[in-house]
Structure formats: C-alpha cells, structure tokens
Amino acid sequence: MFLSNVAYHLEDGKWGNVYPMLMNKLYKGELPVANVENAINELQKIKAQFKLVMPDQAIWEIEYPARKSPFAGDTAQRITDLSNYFYTSDARDLFDVIQTTLETALKVKKNVAVQSI
Hints:
The chain has one domain (about 1-115). Helix 3 (about 35-50) packs antiparallel against helix 4 (about 95-110). It has a two-stranded antiparallel ribbon. By secondary structure, it is mainly α. The protein has 4 helices and 2 strands, in the order H-H-E-H-H-E.
C-alpha cells in the first residue's frame, strides 16, 4: 500500500520513475549499500511530498487506484496526511522504521534486504 501510494501520487503512476532506489531496488528485495544514501534522500522527499496528500486520498493498490483502503474513513486523529498515515503491524511509523534501517545499513556498511517472514 505504501509503495502504491508513492507511485500513484508522486510518480504519475510510473513505478520507480522518480524514486528508483526505494521503488525498484529495495522493493525487488535488495538495496546495495552504495545506494543507501540516495534511498535516504528519496525517503525524505517522499515524506515531505506526502504532507500534501490527505488521508482520504490514500489508495489500496496501484493496479486499482479507485479501490480505497479498508481503513478509509476510520483513521486515527493523529493522522493528518500521508506522511503519518503508514504504520507497521506493531504500531511503529513506517517512515521511522525505513529511515532507521537505512541509517543502520550505512553504519554497518551492509546491503538492505527485504524478506517476508
């Protein structure tokens, strides 16, 4: 859902066109450490631009943009725009989780890999 909203709202529906490090490399499973700084910059730009997108504009998936999130209309008061809309299943802000992960990768000089559990 997060990446679909990036593509839909910020990349004119063209997945990875504007934010290739996050949308292509990380999404496909691995972001080389050499690209982590670029990914951090992308993440910061996405967050800034998401401040201009209201929660009721969130989409569920890029293939069906008219399909709204099942949470539409039931958002917490703390959610004011898409920059603070996305949370993990354990209630952590997704931007913070990604930012921390990328910063840690820089410190330890390791690639970032995405795995399903």
